[in-house]
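Objective 1.3, modelling of assemblies. Example input:
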Amino acid sequence: MYWPIDLIILIFVIVCALAAIYVKDLLGTAVLFGAYSFMMCLLWAIMGAVDVAFTEASVGAGVSTVFFVAAVFRTSRRTKD
Amino acid sequence: MTELFMLIAAKYNYWLYIILMMIGLYAMIAKNNLMKKLVGMNIFQTAIILFYVSIGFKHNATIPIIMGDHGHGGHGAAIHAADYINPVPHVLMLTAIVVSVATFGVAMALCVRVYQRYHTLEEDELRMRLSEK
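Predicted structure (tokens):
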């Protein structure tokens, strides 16, 4: 593990998590959450867990985002916080 | 002071995992929208999974696939476990990822049903509608 890359991607993960929590539009939350999952996938590839990495890339970043966008279009995009 | 800083910097990844976990916990407790709570739950789960995968990591080791012809002939050098990253946490956390996506899907379906019935996803409005009846 080459530690500067690890540290930079960990900081990106935390920034994506905070942005997904604080953005005031649920569609924006969905997109930022997909970015968060993809950053997490990169982190696992760095740690040598390649099987976990491509499961996360397909299931976490793919299927979860599709679920989230579908649920947002069936409900509302409005959020108060 | 520098000793304390070195102590924190040596395990920087664990501190950042704890920060990530606390972000998830905060979102689950303090956010008003049900979808935001779900995002917090997922962040919490991925922080725990990240911690478990990171404790299987070894320096100067490669991914857990046996190199060369060690698996076939039985001749040659012995396989050293220190040369390979520990695969047991990876396999356990693979199951946890699939479970987390299933949880997320069911929770989204419940959110859609709540919205169809009460026409809101905000927790305070939901409480108000429930107390009206």
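The longest helix of chain B spans residues 88-118.
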